[in-house]
Specification:
DNA-binding; transcription; six-stranded antiparallel β-sheet; RmlC_Cupin_sf; alpha+beta; three-stranded antiparallel β-sheet; AraC family transcriptional regulator; 293 residues; single chain
Amino acid sequence: MKAMVHKSAIPDTKLFVVKELSAPAFDPNWHFHSEHQLFVVLEGTGTRFVGDSIKPFKEGDMVFTGPNLPHLWRSEDAYFNKANHLRTHGIVIYFKENFLGESLMKKEEMEKIRILLQKSVYGLEIKGETNRLITQMMKELVHLQGIPSLIQLLKILDILTNSTECYTIAHSGYINQYKEDETVRMTKVYEYVMQNFRQKISLDEVAALANMTPSSFSRYFKARANKSFSNFVSEIRVGNACKLIHEQEMNIAQISYECGFNTLSNFNKQFKEITGKNPLKYKEEYFKSTIDR
């Protein structure tokens, strides 16, 4: 498996690139690149990795990432089985820090956009009415060319600069410590965990995938992911539990077992540590919020 680091290269003839993505699954390669990226999921579910953040994603997930912030929208396993006939769909915009030219970006009129771009270094999740408005504008942008397309992008950025519905994703202390040649190694680790989190995961096996000793791998992973490997696995399991709670097809005990926890008490403990609520409280608040919409 080859991870593409600079897969969003913008041609010298363009100020930015907008793409409509449609495939059985989103690209499973963990990666980062030098461009800013605005991405919205129009169809598909799975787990989203941005910096040191792990969350389930579904239709409507919108994220704005800054340069060299590692990210991955990993589709659920079912999307990789052709027999299921599942599809993913999204729109992505790439542009560089000084896409309008260094001198113009320093002007007073661009101050709010400069501040927005600075905030994006930790990733921004965009919700609410801002999300709905920009989703529609991104759909329109796909079909625009020339000056109208640039005006549309500037309108999108202007809306983001004035929105109170943009929330920081990665922790403020997060720094990308990865090198380009480490992306293949980390993609293997992420993929292994995503395929095996429902059962016991052996540190020895994961370390072997990374061609390291268990102790070396533990130090390496914590220095780069800003969390221990065991916490990383717990966050993936809890993220999947949140998704199952949203679907309302299983009780809490069944969800605990399905997500790889060996006891219900351990599930409750880990869930509360990560979400700040116990599973029943989380379920109650989630469904109340869906009724109130």
